[in-house]
Amino acid sequence: MPVVYLNGDYIALDQARISVLDRGFLFGDGVYEVLPVYGGKPLRLDEHLARLQRSCDSIRLSNPLDRDGWAAVIGEVVARNDGGDLAVYWQITRGVGAKRDHTFPQGVAPTVFMMASPLPLPSSEQLERGITCVSMTDNRWLRCDIKAIALLSNLLLRQAAIDGGGMEAILFRDGYLTEGAASNIMLVKDGKLFAPPKDHLILPGITYDLVLELDARHGVPFEVREVAEAEVRNADELLLTSSTKEVLAITTLDGKPVGSGRPGPVFRLLHELYQQYKAKLSK
Ligand code: PLP
Fold first, then answer.
1. 75 CA → ligand 1 middle, Å
2. N or C terminus: fewer CB in 10 A for the chain?
3. Dist. CA 183 → ligand 1 center (Å)
4. Nearest to 242 by CA among 36, 30, 31
5. How far apart are CA 183 and CA 165, in angstroms?
6. Three-state DSSP class for residue 244
């Protein structure tokens, strides 16, 4: 039975309970993080914690733990779930109000919940053949930079993509690429990587930053700028990045091949560099 953390206690998953008046349950009033852990070691912990702090600040929620406090809880949850390769998920909500009321309750402690699950790494088939995606109109709110637990639009978009035979929805707003329903998207044209800017329309992905860093370190040219839908449809390669998917090649979009229809050289290089980066964690 997985062990989870709830408001200071480490308990079996099936013993974890929250109030029906919790604002996360009633309103989706909270923020979250997902941290990949390899061989028991977190990847980019400080970056995930910095993003969590920004999410808390953006919704006027006081972060209940500091860096060392979070590191200790994460370490304990990882250890109590036998380490290995895990996705650590945690959320902070604005706590339990006295009644259902939109106004923020005063003097209420936030609810903190953390769990760890096996990291669902890409399959060898996904790595060798790439994945299929479906494009959708981005109809989410205008604060996609906040990692908010209220994910209804993302869920509807992702499910529509799956119902349409894809693994992920590629989102466009006003003719420009934003991101995936649960991932960031970049494109390659003539050997150069292009990534949409980290503004209010996308989540500032930790993997996005890592991929651009790996690019810079290995001399792959890249540019951060707005990417038009037509460029996406004419790309040589399309890349998907996220903490649980790492880097994947999108080889089919809306039933049409992307570039050659096979994972391309920039994907293969970045995949290799990512594996090397991960391997260094255990040394
Ligand atoms: N964009 C969205 C909407 C996401 O939900 C995620 C991750 O879940 C990402 C981008 C990728 O972020 P990260 O690389 O930090 O996992």
1. 22
2. C
3. 4
4. 36
5. 18
6. coil
